[in-house]
């Protein structure tokens, strides 16, 4: 014969509300006894995982404090329902407590809240319910400083990401898009680092210069986005050093100065080689980009001094003179 606690577990697993009432009739303290005998998980956890809506409603009515309890794995019933995407159970759990905002923002395993699990699982309707019930939950951070946006990108949930951004714009929390985690990684950094090629473009205001531009770059994927950043950064460094060379042309110790400047370029180029890349084609592309970025400022500066550069410059000057003379002949009154 099954024990009463075992019968309660089976009733929770099967969603048998009749058996639940029979057990309570036999022992009015059965729910309290279950918590003592099996403290690692209450009947509401079991029923939520089994997605037994009617049973969940009854348990919440009989024992509302179960809603806030963690199981042995660090999950609350709301976390489980959010991850599974059972919208109706999420609504029941939220309505089953008088402190809705507190419930939505209660942290469990790894400092995650219900919206984090909804974002990780890509449950858009659950995200809508959670933010509608408690808009502050979009500010929730995990123990490593990740927002729900970080997790949506990390777990490749692009529609959830788009939905979260739309909500963030709607409630006026745009700055969250630029929040970094404990390592300083923003959503864009994470998208590029994890090679996300399908990050959606969010064109609507008021985020055109934050998430808009960032998502466009992420949309290009690491085949373009990281290389664009590398080229721009390398070109900026080389151009700055070129200006330094020009401005210090009359200074003493020219040889030592040039050695220092070229050493800086060498050190920068060597450090960039340490960036993660598992494909030989990308390593080759990176070397080409670095070489082009390093050479371009010097070429533009010294090109006019070379023979072909002088010839092109003379050709251009003669061309401009011919154009001016032609205009003088046709429109003498303007000159």
Report on this model:
The chain is mainly α and 335 residues long. It has helices at residues 4-14, 17-26, 30-37, 43-49, 53-62, 77-84, 87-95, 100-104, 114-121, 124-133, 148-154, 158-170, 187-193, 208-220, 225-247, 254-272, 280-302, 307-330. Helix 4 packs antiparallel against helix 5 (53-62), helix 9 runs antiparallel to helix 10 (124-133) and helix 15 (225-247) packs antiparallel against helix 16 (254-272). The protein is elongated and about 105 Å long.
Key words describing this protein structure:
335 residues; transmembrane helix; mainly alpha; 0% strand; 64% helix; Serine Threonine Protein Phosphatase 5, Tetratricopeptide repeat; elongated; membrane; Ankyrin_rpt-contain_sf; Ankyrin_rpt; ANK repeat; 2 domains
* CATH class wording of the largest domain: Mainly Alpha
The rounded distance between the terminal residues' Cα atoms is 113 Å
CATH topology descriptor of the largest domain: Serine Threonine Protein Phosphatase 5, Tetratricopeptide repeat
Number of domains: 2
User: What shape does the CA trace take?
Assistant: elongated
Q: In angstroms, what is the radius of gyration? A: 32 Å
Give average pLDDT, whole number.
79
Helix content: 55-70%
Structural class: mainly alpha
Topology:
Elements: H1 4-14, H2 17-26, H3 30-37, H4 43-49, H5 53-62, H6 77-84, H7 87-95, H8 100-104, H9 114-121, H10 124-133, H11 148-154, H12 158-170, H13 187-193, H14 208-220, H15 225-247, H16 254-272, H17 280-302, H18 307-330
Helix pairs in contact: 1-2, 1-4, 4-5, 4-6, 5-7, 6-7, 6-9, 7-10, 9-10, 9-11, 10-12, 11-12, 15-16, 15-17
